[in-house]
């Protein structure tokens, strides 16, 4: 059927933005854009401000460099592996968010692995599938010796077990100290602790920090197997709160454990915070949705992911990786804590 006279032509496919478009928007040369996206800007004296201007322009235009050509030129796959202990752990969603954001800035794509072993990581490191590895919160069984020269960065991990690879840590001692100080300021002198029995550096640090912060206080502790999730936390919390001398304030090693304590308190007819104050660790999204909202130590998972990718990108580009100071944590005070 003939088209109506004067009808506008059907729109063609949207043109893909080019490096020329990025250069024009950022007010730089195409050569500068190429240097930024090839990862070689440091050696050509491209300033951090100019690099950020180029990346901002690229994000605004939706520009991504031609991956195939870049990878062929640099001898890379363009992929990084993020290994987390448990994909269902809500904290690791925060880490992944930061990883994806920073990876896009460096022209990397990310594959996520869960339940990996030391052998799995060693195999990944010896293939050409991945340019580098990001190893987050590993437990002891997942640690092993990586092949020499493996570009790897460890997140929330023991520097002594990283084999000299860069590490990015969280200020867990500072966060735990803030949690205990908050409870003692409310008058609590007998604290409960639902601690993870998971064999991992991050939980050993939490335990040591709790012991240091509660020196001189009366403490009641019970272990929780995190692999069994809320059901294990609920059972341990029920045991803790059923004691005739139960503590009136409890610190939980993460927010999932804290949610199990909420369930146990409800089962026993206890009110939060009138009968028991509760503090968690992580500040995942569910913390603000609990009733009452949970006081918790915020662990900046997004910053952890971004810092890890930045360090990995530096390694891949042959740049020196400067030591990263432990990332600051903070106590988010909500309604789950009250006076003793």
From TrEMBL:
Keywords: DNA-binding, Transcription, Transcription regulation. Gene3D superfamilies: 3.40.50.2300, lambda repressor-like DNA-binding domains (1.10.260.40). One of its GO terms (molecular function) is transcription cis-regulatory region binding. Residues 1-20 are annotated as: Disordered. Residues 17-74 form the HTH lacI-type domain. This is LacI family transcriptional regulator.
């Amino acid at each position: 059927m003939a088209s109506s006279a004067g009808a506008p032509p059907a729109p063609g496919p949207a043109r893909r933005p080019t490096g020329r478009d990025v250069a024009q928007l950022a007010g730089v040369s195409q050569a500068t854009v190429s240097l930024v996206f090839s990862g070689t800007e440091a050696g050509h004296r491209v300033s951090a401000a100019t690099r950020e201007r180029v990346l901002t322009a690229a994000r605004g235009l939706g520009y991504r460099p031609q991956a195939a050509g870049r990878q062929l030129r640099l001898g890379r796959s363009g992929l990084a592996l993020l290994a987390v202990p448990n994909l269902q752990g809500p904290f690791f969603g925060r880490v992944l968010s930061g990883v994806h954001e920073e990876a896009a800035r460096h022209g990397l794509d990310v594959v996520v692995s869960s339940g990996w072993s030391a052998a799995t990581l060693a195999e990944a490191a010896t293939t050409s599938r991945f340019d580098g590895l990001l190893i987050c919160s590993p437990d002891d069984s997942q640690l092993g010796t990586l092949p020499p020269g493996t570009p790897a960065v460890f997140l929330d991990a023991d520097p002594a077990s990283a084999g000299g690879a860069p590490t990015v840590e969280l200020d867990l001692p500072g966060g735990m100290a803030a949690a205990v100080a908050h409870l003692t300021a409310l008058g609590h002198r007998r604290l409960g602790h639902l601690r993870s029995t998971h064999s991992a550096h991050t939980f050993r640090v939490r335990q040591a920090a709790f012991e240091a912060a509660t020196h001189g206080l009366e403490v009641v502790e019970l272990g929780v197997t995190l692999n069994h999730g809320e059901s294990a936390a609920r059972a341990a919390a029920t045991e803790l709160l059923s004691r005739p001398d139960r503590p009136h304030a409890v610190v939980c090693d993460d927010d999932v454990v804290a949610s199990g304590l909420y369930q146990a308190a409800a089962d026993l007819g206890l009110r939060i915070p009138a009968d028991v104050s509760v503090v968690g660790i992580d500040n995942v999204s569910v913390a603000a949705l609990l009733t009452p909202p949970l006081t918790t130590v915020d662990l900046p998972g997004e910053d952890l992911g971004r810092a890890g990718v930045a360090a990995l990108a530096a390694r891949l580009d042959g740049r020196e990786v400067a030591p990263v100071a432990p990332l600051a944590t903070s106590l988010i005070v909500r309604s789950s804590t009250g006076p003793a």
